[in-house]
Amino acid sequence: MYRKFSIKTLAITFGVLLLAVIAVKVSDSFSRGNTLKNVLFDINTDDVTTIRIYPQTEKGKEITLVKNNGLWSVKYNGATYNGDQNLINSLPGQINKLKPLRLAATKKESWKNFQVTDSAATKVVLENNGKVLAGLYIGKFSYIMPKNRMPQQNPYMRQPQGKMNTYVRTLDDNNVYAVEGFLGMSFNRSADDFRDKTIISANKNDLTKLTFSYPADSSFVLSKKDNKWFVDDQPADSASVAGYLNKITHLRGRTFADAGVSSFNHSVKIEGNNMEPVTVQAFVSENGAVITSSRNKGTIFTDDKKDIVKKLFVSKKELLSKNN
Asked: Which residue has the higher pLDDT, 195 or 156?
């Protein structure tokens, strides 16, 4: 009887222990499953009024993007500049509803490996009138080669694509997550990258008149009459005009000047339907040019190689009909 009792006791004990092990496993599995969030942030991007970026390209110095009356400006190093509206408007959406692909680390000691420490990461904070809506440390980037990539025998055969991942952590979480994409490309930029580089932005079909003012006696007017272009009173070459307008209707600068000049020796005033007139002025010298545009007030561009000058300030000869 003693032997039977011992076997029965052992069986019960074993059963209790087995249930305990199963409970721990289930609990641990549930806990790990909950660690991986569906999304890191879920906010209304229209509520974002300020974006603070601390990029590694600026050695962590703050770039502040501020929305006022629906328009973004860039504040940096004590100065305020016109912002690139399309670029900045896209930034909150790139952070909102980020989906973690996997949990990469759970402890602070691992941050350095994924470059998400305060000193190594690019920090981004989205705010609404001073209230923090979302915050992210953007760290290391990785590229995962596609599996089962075959030698390319047919150039038209579509090959499996690799995946770009970025390691991130949120402001209030020790966990490091891998997310899809290359976030550093959007946020780890210089202050100038967020500035408006527009010189001219117009629909070429709306243009009706361009007034060129040059030194000496080389000024002229390009105007549209009855759907035909004229240089002063002479017929223009339609193909030449079309090619010229294609080049300049979406003209952008590249680099910014710290200071302007007191006078200009080249200008063009662009007028048309459904648009405000745009005047572009330049001071052109042997060493390059400095350019301003009424479309982007307060912004001064440099044009050291005169690439913009050559596109914009053409001679009347380049536009005249070959039959003249």
From this structure: 195
For residue 10, which phi and psi values (nearest 5 degrees)?
-65, -40
- Same structural domain for residues 183 and 270? no
Q: What is the percent of the chain with per-residue pLDDT over 90, rounded to a whole number?
A: 77
Burial of 155 (0-12, 13-18, 19+ CB in 10 A): exposed
Range of the domain at 212: 198-318
Query: What pLDDT is recorded for position 32?
Result: 44
Residues 6+ apart with CB under 8 A from 47: 128, 133
List the beta bridge partners of residue 244. Answer: none
Number of structural domains in the chain: 2
106 lies in the same domain as 221? no
pLDDT over threshold 50, residue 27:
no
Whether 180 and 205 map to the same domain: the answer is no
Straight-line distance from the first to the last Cα atom of the chain, in angstroms, rounded to the nearest whole number: 125
Burial of residue 8 (number of CB atoms within 10 Å: 0-12, 13-18, 19+)? exposed
Residue 119 · residue 146 · CB < 8 Å? no
* 40 part of a folded domain: no
Q: Shortest CA distance to 188 belongs to which of 5, 21, 59, 26?
A: 59
Q: Who contacts 247 (Cβ-Cβ below 8 Å, separation ≥6)?
A: 311
Q: Look at residue 86 and tell me if it is in a domain.
A: yes
Say what the pLDDT of residue 159 is.
59
Closest CA to 235 of 246, 248, 222, 247: 222
Instruction: State yes or no: pLDDT of 19 exceeds 80.
Output: no
The whole-angstrom separation of Cα 178 and Cα 168 is 6
Interatomic CA distance for residues 93 and 221, integer angstroms = 45
Asked if residue 227 has pLDDT above 80, the reply is yes
pTM above 0.85, yes or no: no
Distance CA 319, CA 306 (A): 20
